[in-house]
Amino acid sequence: MAGDVLSQSEIDALLSALSTGEMSADDIKKEEEAKKVKVYDFKRALRFSKDQIRSLTRIHENFARLLTTFFSAQLRTYVQITVASVDQIPFEEFIRSIPNMTLINVFEVPPLDGNILMEINPNIAYSMLDRLMGGSGSSHSNVDNLTEIETKIMTNLFERSFDNLREAWANIADIDPILNELEVNPQFLQMISPNETVVVISFNSIIGETSGMINICIPHVVLEPIVPNLSVRYWMQSNKADVSPEQTAIIEKRVKQSELEVVAQLGDTDISIEDFLTLQYGDVLQLDQKISDPLTLSVGGIPKFTIQPGTIKKRMAVQIIDSLKGGDDDE
């Protein structure tokens, strides 16, 4: 029974059967355990793994942030765009899920094949248009009557927004989005087969005081050449910064010019606070090291070498005898 939605009459009948003893809770549990068959719809083939869907989600979460910033600057009002869901469904199901009259951008993404759709809910679309034309951002939702001027204004806005899509996709593919057409009736779209699997990214969008959905529909044929790039392994490799030889030389030069504190330690001793407070000129402190023993040279507070003291041209100096072996050698 898991996954089924019961009507109110079915719920009442079930509660009545339990109360009269016609059916027990154990019977229901046995029925649920026996029914473990998962229905698979071959018309709704799942072409992408959960890992790949998560990668697409991360990409478009970044796109949502970039789009929020872009629309805020263009519309000069409060804008909030967030990813609501990422699903893979048949193209026909996507077409049925959007309004009969809406705003649909159809654009290419060379060098990849196929087209991508960006569907903007009429409430959001006309709120944007009203803001661009100096209004308060109210929505009239008469998207079936777009004039040539309105079409040109909206086309320019979305063409400029494609730079954000290019930036969001940069980690998996270098694309160059090109707007082909602006459509208002989804029934006129004959891009791919109705049963073709598409990935639909839905965004919750708020423009001023108007809210609605923005959907991006990506057919499988578009993503097929770059499916390997959607794996976690690829993302981990691509996140590693490639350092050129020139950059390596600059870093090495700056590291060599860095200054380190070098300390030659003669020895240690412990005294009481009372003795410390009464120290005077001429007092002698006995250290825990003999004169004949080599001293320790610390670099950056870490013991690195054994040394012996001396002078060079009447100036104090030390001569390195050996390096200290231990866990600090690798630092």
Automatic annotation (TrEMBL):
CDD domains named among the record's database cross-references: FliM
InterPro entries: CheC-like_sf, Flag_FliM, FliN-like_C, SpoA-like_sf
Compartments, record wording: Bacterial flagellum basal body; Cell membrane
Residue intervals passing through the bilayer: none
GO biological process, one term: bacterial-type flagellum-dependent swarming motility
SUPFAM superfamilies found in the cross-reference section: CheC-like (SSF103039), Surface presentation of antigens (SPOA) (SSF101801)
GO cellular component: bacterial-type flagellum basal body; plasma membrane
A GO term for molecular function: cytoskeletal motor activity
Family annotation (Gene3D superfamilies): CheC-like, SpoA-like
Keywords: Bacterial flagellum, Cell membrane, Cell projection, Chemotaxis, Cilium, Flagellar rotation, Flagellum, Membrane
Domain named Flagellar motor switch protein FliN-like C-terminal: residues: 254-322
Membrane topology annotation: Peripheral membrane protein
Family (UniProt): Belongs to the FliM family.
NCBIfam families: fliM_switch (TIGR01397)
Descriptive protein name: Flagellar motor switch protein FliM
Source species taxonomy: Bacteria, Bacillati, Bacillota, Bacilli, Bacillales
